[in-house]
Design brief:
Helix content of chain A: under 10%
Helix content of chain B: under 10%
Structural class of chain A: mainly beta
Oligomer: heterodimer
Number of strands of chain A: 11
Largest interface: A-B, 25 and 27 residues
Order of helices and strands of chain A: EEEEEEEEEEE
Strand content of chain B: over 45%
Number of helices of chain B: 0
Number of strands of chain B: 12
Largest sheet of chain B: 6 strands, mixed
Shape of chain B: globular
Radius of gyration of chain A: 13 Å
Shape of chain A: globular
Radius of gyration of chain B: 14 Å
Distance between the termini of chain A: 37 Å
Structural class of chain B: mainly beta
Chain lengths: 115, 114
């Protein structure tokens, strides 16, 4: 079974530019998550999708971040405009359903550096 | 609110020595608890999870953790450290009353000394 795929793996941009990340979850996984992991910290949830609907986006900075999951499969996360403090690793994860005991499977992440 | 505290951001052990990584959680309802490992430039990989069955949970690579409700702890152990265990370890809590959202600790970096 293929894992969670993310691209690009690395991105360097200047502040005020825009950037987009892509995630393809494991086939059949209804729930998809985007996390932000700042160096030296644990992952912080940005947004959670159940199929193509948003379950939780309470920690998403909506003035600059947006995310969508068209057709309930792939997802994109966009930052516009980027700030220096957005430098982090952006992790995508998925699990099959919404059960609390389910394992989340993580992609390799996209490392973003904002100069 | 749910939270996770990992005591010790850096732990060093000698190869062959006991590994003990500490995790304490805060939750108003019975939690699900997870340990993940992250190798450099990779995503997180599940080591083990507690889902209200046996309190002693065995995971991959020889790791295990014990759920202790009275101490609100879920410490990760391995009897004998191997060089390949050097990585970042994250404890996470998940509860149904918060939409099953994961709350991660700040992580513990494990160094194994040859």
């Amino acid at each position: 079974e293929a894992g969670v795929a993310q691209s690009p793996r690395y991105k360097i941009i200047e502040k005020r530019q825009s950037v987009a990340f892509w995630c393809n979850p494991i086939s059949g996984h209804a729930t998809l998550y985007w996390y932000q992991q700042i160096l030296g910290q644990g992952p912080k949830l940005l947004i959670q999708f159940q199929n193509n609907g948003v379950v939780d986006d309470s920690q998403l900075p909506k003035d600059r971040f947006s995310a969508e999951r068209l057709k309930g499969v792939d997802s994109t996360l966009k930052i516009q405009p980027a700030k220096l403090e957005d430098s982090a690793v952006y992790l995508c994860a998925s699990n099959r359903g919404a059960g609390g005991a389910e394992t989340q499977y993580f992609g390799p992440g996209t490392r973003l550096l904002v100069l | 609110a749910q939270s996770v505290t990992q005591l010790g951001s850096h732990v060093s052990v000698s190869e062959g020595a006991l590994v003990l990584l500490r995790c304490n959680y805060s939750s108003s309802v019975p939690p699900y608890l997870f340990w993940y490992v992250q190798y450099p430039n990779q995503g997180l990989q599940l080591l083990l999870k507690y889902t209200s069955a046996a309190t002693l949970v065995k995971g991959i690579n020889g790791f295990e953790a014990e759920f202790k409700k009275s101490e609100t702890s879920f410490h990760l152990t391995k009897p004998s450290a191997h060089m390949s265990d050097a990585a970042e370890y994250f404890c996470a809590v998940r509860t149904p009353n918060t939409g099953n959202q994961f709350y991660f600790g700040t992580g513990t970096s494990l160094t194994v000394i040859p």
